[in-house]
Amino acid sequence: MIERLKELRGEAVAAFDGAASPQELEEARVRYLGRKSELNQASRGLKDLPEDERRAVGRAVNEIKNELAAHLTAATDRLEAAAGGAASSVDLTLPGRRPWVGGKHPITRTLERLESIFAGLGFEVATGPHIEDDFHNFEALNIPPDHPARDMHDTFYIDGDRLLRTHTSPVQIRTMKSRKPPVRIIAPGRVYRNETPDASHGSEFYQLEGLYVDRGVRFGELMGVLTKFLGELYGEAIAVRFRPGFFPFTEPSTEVDIECRICHGRGCPVCKNTGWVELLGAGMVDPRVFEAVGYDPDVYTGYAFGLGVDRIHMMMCGVNDIRLYHENDLRFLRQV
Ligand code: PHE
């Protein structure tokens, strides 16, 4: 019996070690280790053997089974490696896969940059609600119900009095109503307008408002602060232009342009062939606004400005469609 087992072991080892394909190996496994194999029959027949023989044969059967299992594993690995299979495709020297950690939206990064420049100029951040009322968004800013400026500020009304704010200027009103001068704030945030979306208009965008009120604040200071700010943002060499403008809540008012950074003043679709891009509205706070918030216009003067944050970033990176910022397309967001 033992002799026969040894013979079997020799045959099986040769079959496993010599198998040239997975099929051959599988056939050998069935023949030598399968349910109907001689080896298996031998272990099932153990119980019929006399006591002393049973021990010796049992031990031999177990040893051979273990030995054959090892040869089978080795043969499996050898064939997989030859086929370029699982065992060989694990390259432990490759660097690991980096997890995707995400990043800040370009508008968020721009807001942080603007906030840090204005913090350096002594401005603190103020906020206000996105759902405003007619008084803060219009009336107190010297825009009565029949004023033509309401045309450009058409918005989404919630009911007769409540609406989505069309600019960050209502934060001027809320801040002045709750504090005494001097006041020096910026108010960044999202604003809404009933616009038909195109490359330069969206129904949601971001603005950053600025307000400085104290005794003896003058227009020259406004020009100085804005020129300094634009120089910090785009580099000292950037050309800045102040044009007369009109806003109901500032007098006098100005619109501030920079040279188009897409075409460097030569003329292109983004600057509508003018070579200049409007970035800010600004001016001296109108006395009617001071009256609406209870400041004495004979004692205090101040300036205010408002800028489009999306547009600031567009000019920084040469982006030509404002809608890209709100579409959440990662192919765009990863680039800018
Ligand atoms: N609120 C104005 C707008 O949205 C911009 C502005 C702000 C102009 C402050 C002057 C002063 O059009």
CATH topology of the largest domain: BirA Bifunctional Protein, domain 2
Weakly predicted, low-confidence segments: none
What is the succession of H and E elements?
Answer: HHHHHHEEHHEHEEHEEEHEHH
Q: What is the mean pLDDT?
A: 91
Question: First CA to last CA: what distance?
Answer: 80 Å
Description of the molecule:
The chain folds into two domains: 2-89; 106-333, 2-Layer Sandwich (BirA Bifunctional Protein, domain 2), CATH 3.30.930. The mean pLDDT is 91. Helices cover 42% and strands 19% of the residues. The protein has helices at 2-18, 22-33, 38-45, 51-82, 86-89, 106-120, 134-137, 149-152, 170-178, 219-234, 287-293, 309-317, 330-333; strands spanning 124-125, 131-133, 162-164, 183-192, 204-214, 240-247, 250-259, 276-285, 301-308. With 336 residues, it is an alpha+beta fold. A hairpin with a 2-residue loop joins strand 6 and strand 7 (250-259). The chain is built from 13 helices and nine strands. The protein has a seven-stranded mixed β-sheet, sandwiched between helices. A two-stranded antiparallel ribbon has the order 2-3. It starts with a helix and ends with a helix. The structure holds phenylalanine. Phenylalanine (PHE) binds next to strand 8 and strand 9.
Give a quick precis of the structure.
This protein folds into 2 domains: 2-89; 106-333, 2-Layer Sandwich (BirA Bifunctional Protein, domain 2). It has 336 residues and is an alpha+beta fold. Helices cover 42% and strands 19% of the residues.
Q: Helices and strands in order, then pairings?
A:
Layout: H1 2-18, H2 22-33, H3 38-45, H4 51-82, H5 86-89, H6 106-120, E1 124-125, E2 131-133, H7 134-137, H8 149-152, E3 162-164, H9 170-178, E4 183-192, E5 204-214, H10 219-234, E6 240-247, E7 250-259, E8 276-285, H11 287-293, E9 301-308, H12 309-317, H13 330-333
Parallel strand pairs: 1-4
Antiparallel strand pairs: 2-3, 4-5, 5-9, 6-7, 7-8, 8-9
Helix pairs in contact: 1-2, 1-4, 2-4, 6-12, 9-11
Bound molecules: phenylalanine.
Phenylalanine is lined by residues 167, 169, 209, 247, 250, 281-283, 304-306.
